[in-house]
Specification:
- With 358 residues, this protein is of the alpha/beta class.
- The chain folds into 3 domains: 2-58, no CATH class; 105-156; 168-347, P-loop containing nucleotide triphosphate hydrolases (Rossmann fold).
- 47% of the residues lie in helices and 18% in strands.
- The structure holds guanosine-5'-triphosphate and magnesium ion.
- Magnesium ion is lined by residues 179-180, 210, 250.
Length: 358
């Protein structure tokens, strides 16, 4: 509530002033005649003092008018702001589109590689190498782009078949990756598809179970198997299998971080003549762990890779990461538990297709 006193000559003048200042809803609380103070009061007509009040919640007319104006101005401002926002977002999305276009038709493929767990740095390197060659040609069709990408990935993957004269094949690697199963698959293929005389050796100083696994398999297939418990027994085992065209050597899984176990294994393998040593890796293992395993097992001088369990993952980038970082060829891949069916000779074309999500 606002209360104000007015000193006016007459009541009309007072009412006008009150309406103007306090608004049309102002009420008159009191009015009385007053004389001006001092000697002048005796010579001039008396004035009227009006006390008026207005509810401040009720806006005076001018204030109401001003409020309406302000609301209109705010509306306008909001409209302008939202137009500005739309404009900025149109500019930004245009900018993004231009950036993607500037990166060329291969940019989407790089994203695809990263989604398949190819390391970002490697994906960028691949993109850069392709870009240098094909940057000028922005009119490439998607089909051509796919072929160029596939070719590039194949260059980075190294696959290599086993040489015909390979005789002693050794399977090393971490626990449970599928060494014994892969050995059994290959033994069956060599024996039944290639008519080779196959012998097996198991180096197992840790678990009797692993020996039994291979023995059972040897019993079923009728292949000879020798158990070697110390490096000095190796020569005798090889001698016993001298009639075999091919000898497959199984080893117990080693924890890569256990240097002693890996060194001990190296001791066994060092006495083998011209072995082909496969490091068996699971495609489900994280890239960083694969690097660690490859590093720790380097003591045993493996020279080839086998990737197992491709059926248990949906991203195959780890294979490309490993191949791009090291120079070991991939010779086999395995795709399930069935012996001998779920094994394939590694081909870069198939691997590239898997890595590109095909
Ligand atoms: N899904 C799938 N399973 C596989 C594959 N290869 C092997 N396995 C399974 O993996 C498990 C371990 O296989 P093993 O051959 O015993 O593995 P290992 O490397 O010899 O194990 P250790 O001797 O204990 O170190 C078994 O259940 C196999 O059937 C594969 O390619 N795909
Ligand atoms: Mg085993």
């Amino acid at each position: 509530m606002k209360i104000k006193k007015y000193c006016v000559d007459n009541i009309q003048e007072g009412m006008q002033l009150i309406k103007k200042e306090l608004g049309p809803d102002a009420i008159i609380i009191q009015s009385r005649k007053v004389r001006e103070r001092g000697w002048r009061g005796f010579f001039t007509p008396p004035k009227i003092e009006i006390t008026a009040a207005a509810d401040t919640a009720v806006m005076p007319f001018q204030a109401a008018l001003a409020g309406q104006e302000q609301a209109k101005a705010e509306d306008k401002l909001h409209k302008e702001l939202s137009e500005l926002k739309q404009l900025v977002s149109r500019l930004v999305s245009g900018q993004q589109r231009r950036e993607i276009e500037a990166k060329g038709p291969f940019y989407q493929w790089m994203q695809q590689l990263i989604a398949h767990d190819v390391e970002e740095e490697l994906a960028q390197q691949i993109l850069a190498e392709i870009h240098d060659k094909f940057a000028a040609d922005n009119e490439l069709s998607q089909e051509v782009v796919a072929i160029i990408m596939q070719k590039k990935i194949r260059e980075k993957l190294r696959t290599e078949e086993l040489p015909d004269n390979a005789r002693i094949l050794v399977f090393v690697g971490p626990t449970g990756v599928g060494k014994t199963t892969t050995l059994a698959k290959l033994a069956a293929r060599f024996a039944f598809y290639q008519n080779k005389k196959v012998g097996m050796i198991t180096i197992d100083t840790y678990r009797v179970g692993a020996v039994d696994q291979l023995r059972t398999y040897a019993d079923i297939t009728g292949m000879p198997v020798e158990v070697v418990m110390a490096p000095k027994e190796m020569a005798a085992a090889l001698e016993k299998l001298s009639a075999c065209d091919i000898i497959l050597v199984d080893t117990a899984g080693r924890n890569a971080k256990n240097t002693m176990q890996v060194s001990e294994l190296a001791g066994f393998l060092s006495v083998l003549p011209a072995p082909e040593i496969f490091l068996v890796l699971s495609a489900t293992t994280k890239t960083r762990d694969l690097y660690m395993i490859m590093d720790k097992f380097s003591r045993v001088n493996y020279n080839r890779l086998i990737f197992t369990k491709l059926d248990e993952t949906t991203t195959y980038g780890a294979i490309l990461n490993v191949c791009a970082k090291t120079n070991y060829p991939v010779t086999y891949i395995t795709t399930g538990q069935n012996v001998p069916d779920d094994l394939e000779v590694a081909h870069s074309e198939k691997l590239a297709n898997l890595i590109l999500g095909g």
